[in-house]
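USER: My hope is that you can spare some time for a protein that puzzles me. I am handing you a single protein, as its sequence and its fold in token form. Walk me, if you will, through where the backbone shape changes along the chain. The protein I mean follows directly.
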Amino acid sequence: MTEQEFTGSLIIPCETGKVSDGYHTFDELYEHRCLLFLALMRSHPHQSWKSRKHHDGSVFEGWFIAGLILPSGAVTYHLPDRMWNLCRCHEVELAPEWDGHTSKDVIDRLTQWLGDDR
């Protein structure tokens, strides 16, 4: 049994960013996420930072790191360089060391910050 048969997944060769749910493509949803995060950072500038370098000085060419420090924990994303000037917050030479948070942690931290105990 192949992995695809086991998981019931279907692999179709295509450009992932162009895949749509009928309303939005992955590219559009990613753009929304980036812009919404920038808007959230702009509304909380004293809790926000940006850097072109990771804590160890390494870089991802074409990307920068942006973060928002919440009482519930850090939320960080890599954003495309073309959005650097939209990110109007404190610039740091090196990003704070990543605390290992996962996508689920980000959801939990944002939810906790919003005050929803689910």
User: Anything to note?
Assistant: The chain has three helices and four strands. The mean pLDDT is 91. Residues 21-114 form one domain.
